[in-house]
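User: Quick sanity check before I run a bigger batch. Here is a single chain. Can you write out its predicted 3D structure?
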Amino acid sequence: MTSQPLSRRSLVVGGAATAVLTTAGGTHARAATRTGAQRRAAEAAGAARIPPLRPDVLRAAIGDLTHPPATAAQLRVTGTQGSWYGSAGVADTTTGREVRPDDAFRAGSVTKVFVATVVLQMAARRRLELDAPIGRYLPGLLPREQARITVAQLLQHTSGLPDHRGLPDLRTPEDVLHHRHDRWTPHQLVATVTHGPLKFPPGTAQEYRGINYVLLALLIERLSGRPYGEEIRRALLRPLGLTRTLLPGDDPRLHGSHVHGYLRMSDTSLRDITVYNPSSSWGEGELVSSVDDLSRFLEALFRGVLLPRFMTEKLFTLPPASVRMLDGSAARYSMGLQQATVNGVTFWGKTGEWYGCRTRMFSTRDHQRRFVLSYAPTPLNPREDMTQRVVAALTQAEGGGAGDTA
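Assistant: Done. Predicted structure follows.
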């Protein structure tokens, strides 16, 4: 799903994942059966196609704040093939302050990568078994059929949990504004799916669902004996010095320097949507961070700083080729990341969305190109034009044609 709260939680990832950051089915099928040597050779071939950075093109890509309408954008590019940072627009339309790379913003479903990393750390220390049913660790929380879903199936979005019931209707910007102070507990969120039969046998199909990570965050709390956000701070944020990253809990405000989010109302007025109770996305979409922090985290994750090699490999392993998305396309989610190939360049990372903010955090596995894009679109359902421009600029050589997936 996109990480917009509540009623959008059951959606399959949209935006970049369906428009630009996607892979064709054949690529997934081949990747699932490649040997390690074949995979490394394929990645090396993809890396050879990475073009030099073109600052003027990147500056133009984020500088167009009309497609989609947005109040701000910033892009941090790092990796062995060069680094670049640029920003456009303002962090606050009232003061006119420019965007800074340490400005905080709501990173949405990027939260899931942090949750998955801590779960894999626990598995590496044998505090849990990935193939064990979630009911072993969270007894009495789920009906018997759902309790058999494994930890690995939650991580890979192959759980088959039912659709949500009892969520507010957030189809208009006015609805979003009305519900922004709603408070949800994780158990209330889980209760919206504990009805009816599973949508499919666990492990046989893939459907991106935020509720999978709500359960994983509850798992972290049960095994660590502390709030999952505190465990993420202990295991990830403090060791890496991610001082601008936090899990806010019920706090609806962003503190310190931050980028404001805005929504265009039906009457065309622009409303500041920055103050929002993030408990509706507890465990799966509430992270607050900055482009600098996310870039540092992604590099550490890919370099094996946070996980032993055999667990890091799970971040880059898709389900078997027989497992498909519900629309028939190839599975694209691993245990924490999503795969995307654009213009022959394969990225791994995560998309994140919140009202008034979108985040795209991706890297090639060989560290040649890494980028974190954050922008502040004002429509409720904005187009992915900016992501398209940025990804094209990062994957096309000068004079290249339109982007293509492979």
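The two ends are 22 Å apart (CA to CA).

User: Great, the batch can go ahead then.
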